[in-house]
Amino acid sequence: MRAMAKPGHDSNLDILRSAAVLAVFLSHALEVTAGCAFGEHLAYGVETFSLGRIGVLLFFVHTSLVLMQSLERAATNLADWPLVKYFYVRRAFRIYPLSVCLILLSIAFSVPANALGVPYGWHGVKWALANLLLIQNITGAVVISSPLWSLPYEVQMYLVLPILFPLVRAPRGGARLILIYIVAAPLSLFNPLFLYAPCFLAGVIAYKLLGTVRPRLPAWLWLPAVVGAVAFYLSRPYSESSWLKDVSICLIVGASIPLFKRNRGPIAAAASQIAKYSYGIYLCHTPVLWLVYRKLTIPGWQRPIWTVIATGVVSVACYHAIEAPLIRIGTRLAIGMSVKPRAPAPVCPQWPSAETRPA
Q1: Each residue of 238-248: pLDDT tens digit?
Q2: Residue 297: CA atoms inside 13 Å, Cβ hemisphere, count?
Q3: Structurally, how many domains does the chain consist of?
Q4: DSSP label at 118?
């Protein structure tokens, strides 16, 4: 198996992922610092539920796009079932190790789901297993930690992407993708398992447009465009059932990604670091908020500072101690399971020398 081709790094996707994780972090931090009780979603005039939700939606668009690109890179060396196995094994080793650690630590130290005064509660072994397997949306189990609610949808998206990949990559993939989107959009209204299918498909649309649409907009406009999308989402009235708003903003963001030239410079460099540790930030900031605001005796003005520092330190530590080593193990295992060993070259028979050869 020859080495996987590595395309140029897309700094615009780092900016998108950074904006997503910072929106989620800020939504929860605002709630805690404003003293919101569980269920309240207005802090300092900011609609925090909407802020957190748009962050997750941007994650969905980003993740499906990046994983379609990952499948494309792997498809240069693998095809069909070996490609599917390679993809599934790598994704399992990417998403589960840190979430499992978070869940086990939350159970061991009775860490509540959030820092809004909700007490910790044990709901049984089935509840714990549903969270460990990330199938809470199927079983109806309460999430152990609030950021975990989105991960089951990502896991289920992983199951579908390798099926979509050959359909979308084919010569008539664009027409097929439009048809899939037309079917998935109304289906998401009636089946909770498909609730975010249009949001994930927006990332697939971005993947299909990349390379076919020439980027004409200047790179410096990308960050204001992402911030503008977040602000537009927040400006709309909040509703628990915001299907049209969710689908529209994801489609707009996904279709916009190919239009911008790639960023360079300090913003891209900073976004690259935030994106690198974003999974740790996403999962770890909630227990950090609980620790800083509920367990430790710290002057009030210092708490936001310590929250940022602790979240950064914990996220970096989690990446280097858990995420990166398990990603490497998963990659080696995926290659071993997906690539057949080459048969040894046939050995030519060695004839005896002329002196010992029989007449």
Answers
A1: 777 788 999 99
A2: 0
A3: 1
A4: P
